[in-house]
Amino acid sequence: MKKFEKVLGFIAIIIVLAAAKFWLKTDLLFFRLLAGAGLGYALARAYTGFAGSVNRAYRTGSTKLMRTMLFMFFITAVLMTAFLFGKDPASYNLWIKPINIGLMLGGFLFGFGMSISVCCASGVLTDLPQALPRAFTTLIFFMIGVFVGFPIQYTADWVQESWFSSYIGYRTMGGVFLPDLFQGDGFEGYLGALIVFGAICLLFTFLSYYYEKRQKKSGKYSGLEIERIQENLEPMDLKNFKLFSPDTYYHLFEKPWTLKQGAIALAVIVTVMMGVTGYGWGVSQAYGIWFGKILMLFGISAEAIGEFTQLSAQNFATPFFEHQTSVQNFGILIGAIIYLLTAGKFMEFFNSELHINKKQVAMYSLGGLTMGFGTRLAQGCNVGALFTPISNFSLSGWVFLIFMIIGGIISNKFSEKVF
Predict the structure, then answer these.
(1) What residues does 80 pair with on adjacent strands?
(2) Which sequence ranges are marked TM in the entry (predicted)?
(3) Cα 386 to Cα 233: distance, rounded to the nearest angstrom
């Protein structure tokens, strides 16, 4: 069975590479598919996800993933500087999000739902082949939450207007662009911004180490098995290297990546995406558009849906494989499947979480709904309101992170009482 899975994995790779010629209309759509597949592959192979940063810390005491995320944020911001330095930052579609009550409430709701469903906006896609009932239930209600939240996102002043703004922030999405605050540093503000950025990362890292130390001291620390495996991976034996051997295949296709390897891969892909498309990484808005497409199957017009959501009807009328974010999201799912197949783990993971009870269905529905609705208040998810804004030097991303963590902690306490 594992050999058959591996063959299917390479067939899937060939199909993805053939997509440009036979299915996708433009080179940019093909790039979106490849970028999405790369993101999904990296997330799956490094056994990582934004939801785990809170859940692992609360449930096992391990803050390794949280620290890795901070490392990823910093190196992505450094890489982004290469695109922005010497240019008008506003010429890029930087996500310098507003700082307001919507951002805070949205971050809290997203963190709350993320921890209940044990996945996030991108994680729900990588979890579909690994935990289908949980991920599918979450995704359906995530779509509903985004769809219902659209009108508020585009009409409410407390979501649209920022309490604080800066020059480039005002010219983009209205928030605070950190380099604006350090224009006298001789490096267009980026040196000062990166120093502050690094200081914030170090502060969060110190707090995570402190928390983990206290958990170990109190006996509450259990750690995570996959993290122990990742920390003790054996390097490839280059002295006895044979190209066509089980050991070589294992190291090239099966062996898990460390958390840092996954973080570096994600940082590079996201930076390349910015360079090619001029946009950051976004996920969640497409879910609301997908729900609108489902409504269209029942006879509701794109115009009526557009009027309700305050989005152009064209967003809902555009075919799935001509919508850039949808193609990219589909790529994330395919990338995760490719890793599981080529590693010979697809059926093992697929069968691991096939059964859920009614209480779990209700909880995952709540998780998806609160996540989806929260993304509209914060104008993004853990990618669109956290990772991309932070890598774009937006202060809003750090505000979102704080409230996402608070929401995740309260959610875990709530889940303990329910279960």
Answers:
(1) none
(2) 7-24, 30-48, 69-86, 98-124, 136-156, 190-211, 263-281, 327-347, 395-414
(3) 30
> Which tokens go with 387?
């990772």
CA–CA separation, 126 vs 337, rounded Å? 8
Rg of the chain, C-alpha, whole Å: 21
Q: Which of 190, 54, 40, 199 is nearest to 125 (CA)?
A: 40
pLDDT in tens, 313-329: 999 999 999 999 999 99
* pLDDT tens per residue, range 162-190: 999 999 999 999 999 999 999 988 899 99
Q: Which of 154, 193, 200 is nearest to 173 (CA)?
A: 154
Residues 6+ apart with CB under 8 A from 261: 46
Domain count, the chain: 1
Burial class (CB in 10 A: 0-12, 13-18, 19+), 329: buried
Domain that holds residue 118: 2-418
**Is-contact 385 111, C-beta < 8 A?**
no
Biggest CA-to-CA distance, the chain = 66
Quote the CA–CA distance of 42 and 265 in Å, as a whole number. Answer: 7
Place of tokens 């096939």: 354
3-state DSSP assignment of residue 105: helix
SS (H, E, C) 307-321: HHHCCCCHHHHCCHH
Q: Which residue has tokens 């433009």?
A: 26
Give the number of other CB atoms < 10 A from CB of residue 23: 13
